[in-house]
Write a structure and sequence with these properties.
This protein is mainly alpha-helical and 199 residues long. It is built from nine helices and no strands.
């Protein structure tokens, strides 16, 4: 089978992502991607060294899409103003959960340990830097790292419990209250530590 000159990384990534989302991560293989694109399997290696690099680039695209969803949640639109402060964090975490709910296989792949390709590094740094700015209003600044970690851990925990069917019926809750309670608790803890340091 000849190597099609019009084949590119975007086409391969799109086919690979489709396999992951339709059939699960375990179904992803260079051979299956080649079959769907009507290519010889060796043709894929002109663009990716192997499955590890391909998975890393799928994850990178997932992080780019998650970044776009989070930015859209914060920005004004549909009769609402741009979110700031705690409201921005609530909106972004709702967007995070929506992404995890609607793209469960891609989300699961994104949070695996991958070969750190330039594309994956750039995508994760972009998301981290944008997310970090959403915490700039918090005082004192020392709690920002703790708040970032705590909220990520909580949202990932909720997403995982939902995926596993553990938050059905009476257990299903809007996470907004949990986010507000966590932020309030962190602020009080930071204030107490600051007061103790001055004593």
């Amino acid at each position: 089978m000849p190597f099609p000159s019009k084949t590119n990384q975007e086409m391969i990534l799109a086919a690979a992502t489709e396999i992951v989302e339709q059939d699960g991560i375990a179904s992803l293989s260079m051979r299956e991607i080649a079959r769907r694109l009507e290519l010889a399997p060796n043709a894929l290696y002109h663009h990716f060294k192997g499955r590890d690099e391909l998975e890393a680039e799928i994850a990178a695209e997932g992080f780019r899409q998650l970044s776009a969803a989070i930015k859209k949640a914060v920005q004004p639109g549909r009769g609402r103003s741009e979110a700031v402060g705690e409201e921005a964090l609530i909106r972004t975490n709702h967007a995070y959960l929506k992404f995890a709910r609607t793209r469960p296989a891609l989300y699961q792949l994104m949070l695996r340990k991958h070969t750190l390709t330039p594309g994956l590094l750039a995508a994760t740094v972009e998301l981290q830097e944008y997310s970090r700015k959403l915490y700039d209003w918090m005082e004192p600044p020392e709690i920002i790292a703790e708040a970032t970690f705590a909220l990520f851990a909580m949202m990932h925990g909720i997403a995982t419990l939902e995926r596993d069917g553990m938050l059905e019926g009476d257990m299903k809750r809007d996470p907004s209250f949990a986010i507000s309670a966590l932020l309030a608790g962190l602020s009080q803890l930071a204030a107490a530590k600051k007061g103790a340091a001055k004593a």
